Amino acid sequence: MTLLDVQNLSVAFNTADGVVKAVRNASFSVDAGQTLGVVGESGSGKSVTVQSLLGLARGAQVSGQAMFNGADLITMNSADLRQIRGAEIGLVFQDPLTSLHPHYRVGKQIAEMILAHQDVPKRVALNRATELLGQVGIPHPKLRVNDYPHQFSGGMRQRVVIAMAIALEPALLIADEPTTALDVTVQAQILELIKKLQAELNMAVILITHDLGVVADIADSVMVMYAGRPVEKADRDTIYYRSHHPYTGGLLESIPVRGQQHDLRPIPGSPPSLINLPSGCSFHPRCRFVMDRCRTELPPLMQVDAGVDAHQSACWLPASGSWWEERQAMILAESEGSRR
Ligand code: SF4
Questions:
Q1: Using an 8 Å Cβ cutoff, are 281 and 294 in contact?
Q2: Is residue 217 scored above 90 in pLDDT?
Q3: Among 248, 251, 290, residue to substitute to test ligand 1 (most atoms within 8 Å of Cβ)
Q4: Is the pTM of this model over 0.85?
């Protein structure tokens, strides 16, 4: 069952330098209990996409439709949106310190989140806060509930934020780069925790990250964004093993992928200005497979593989099987050339 259905979402900001087209015609959906990974470099529009749905993109001009449990988040008034934020949609951001107030005990902060949405006695909310700390793996929750944020390590603080985000058992958890500020071991623990809570609460999750490796074990489907547009969408295995868009290929080449041997190589160049986007395909100045038409014609999202309904790519390259082999041969030749 579809929980969130976003159609033609566009987000723009007026600035002194011109209009920033942060998101252009993004459409995607998330089913109840499923995880969508949204992946792209910094500036690809992935965070603004979810912020705009929740009324958190200040000063943005937002258009399109975002149906959540039968109501359109884009046209919803701010009081109703506030009720949905926290209660039906939980949020976890990169830096737990932005979500926690340094002057208040963590138990009080979690309890206040509960009291803002539920008419229960304070004592009940505080007991629930203690239970939640235990649920997210904080040792000795009855003691730690009285601690302040600075008394927790970075990973433990992120667990506290997750406890706050799931306090009201939301149908959807949005986690925006939840592990970026953490070391690799803690990162894996936090992802494992999100996976466990998702199963326990049957939550849908939108996991936003710049690192395709982060969604490898957790996402059911993946949407890759570039310059404010979705450029490839598919189930996780298709993205990892049969991706089509050269940008997705570039992201995969820049991370180690389990079961695959390849040299790590960054994507050359940097993402374009969202005020002056390149003509045609926005990726063309960085694409090693660029063709003439790429410089003038913007490729729409097109179905790639007749056998995989939901595999779409915004690229003019053919979808035939030989294309993948040609690309692999080109990558191999290039890496051999760079070794000589
Ligand atoms: Fe590269 Fe052209 Fe595909 Fe854009 S449309 S990704 S420039 S091949």
A1: yes
A2: no
A3: 290
A4: yes
